[in-house]
Amino acid sequence: xxxxxxxxxxxxxxxxxxxxxxxxxxxxxxxxxxxxxxxxxxxxxxxxxxxxxxxxxxxxxxxxxxxxxxxxxxxxxxxxxxxxxxxxxxxxxxxxxxxxxxxxxxxxxxxxxxxxxxxxxxxxxxxxxxxxxxxxxxxxxxxxxxxxxxxxxxxxxxxxxxxxxxxxxxxxxxxxxxxxxxxxxxxxxxxxxxxxxxxxxxxxxxxxxxxxxxxxxxxxxxxxxxxxxxxxxxxxxxxxxxxxxxxxxxxxxxxxxxxxxxxxxxxxxxxxxxxxxxxxxxxxxxxxxxxx
Length: 292
Ligand SMILES: NC(=O)C1=CN([C@@H]2O[C@H](COP(=O)(O)OP(=O)(O)OC[C@H]3O[C@@H](n4cnc5c(N)ncnc54)[C@H](OP(=O)(O)O)[C@@H]3O)[C@@H](O)[C@H]2O)C=CC1
Ligand SMILES: Nc1nc(=O)c2c([nH]1)NC[C@@H]1CN(c3ccc(C(=O)N[C@@H](CCC(=O)O)C(=O)O)cc3)C=[N+]21
Known about the structure:
11 strands, 6-stranded parallel β-sheet, Rossmann fold, binds NADPH dihydro-nicotinamide-adenine-dinucleotide phosphate, alpha/beta, single chain, binds 5,10-Methenyltetrahydrofolate, 11 helices, 3-stranded parallel β-sheet, 43% helix, 2 domains
């Protein structure tokens, strides 16, 4: 197997972003700003938020973090989101998901100004993505798209993996990963199959694919029987097991196969965070009408 180095792809892109931010500062005196909101103290979410804040600061993006109590009322959370939406200094707003107590995230996401929606989860941006006809259009119009799917397309392109004309199976249909990724792959002219927990013959379907993306959240879910020789496998899953952090792919089972694969850790995760920085710059540019 050939490992795809997500850390390297990520650090190359972060260096570019850092340069852009420095240029913006120098030429306009303005600093892009990202607000993050964490409701409750889930330890994994806190780790992610901290990596996001660190990455922002490293790139020269100003971060504004808000910790809210697990028992915060809907009114209090929405009031904060509205306040941040109106704050001129803030270009992007990220509400860390999932919310505690099974709160329906969409109601909160709808309160984020679509211009600051760096996760691409507001219906306005979901609509723009779905209406777009090509990858070029998505890039040229600076459409805000969910970070993980953007990161996956970035990884495929940087690894020289052709998307056009290929059959891609996306396992998982969440609003954060599976659905927007399917749209992005379609915009890149792949033939896309969206698979989920009710899909029949999943193994056979995956075995026929040139690109398999798994965003399920179950360790050792994908094994040798799912993968065609020569395929590219993108493992989005993050699973904490007694043996440590792993993805959805049974790594040992596929390690002798002639495939390309993103590892966990060190694959999609770091690139996801990089795309958050990229989206913050897009939001900065769209909102302040400054070309970056
Ligand atoms: N590396 C990164 O940057 C990121 C990693 N993640 C990780 O990716 C994983 C998925 O996240 P997310 O999309 O938010 O997850 P969700 O839990 O929202 O979605 C999981 C999806 O997997 C599907 N699924 C569950 N069981 C099966 C099965 N037996 N066969 C086929 N499909 C199945 C579900 O289908 P159904 O809809 O039918 O229930 C659902 O669509 C998680 O491990 C998460 O931690 C998430 C975001 C970013
Ligand atoms: N509004 C919102 N937007 C998100 O983009 C979002 C979210 N909520 N909720 C949770 C998921 C998950 N997610 C990850 C980001 C980075 C890593 C990452 O950097 N992972 C490292 C390992 C980190 C570790 O050690 O735990 C790696 O894979 O190498 C993983 C997962 C973003 N998500």
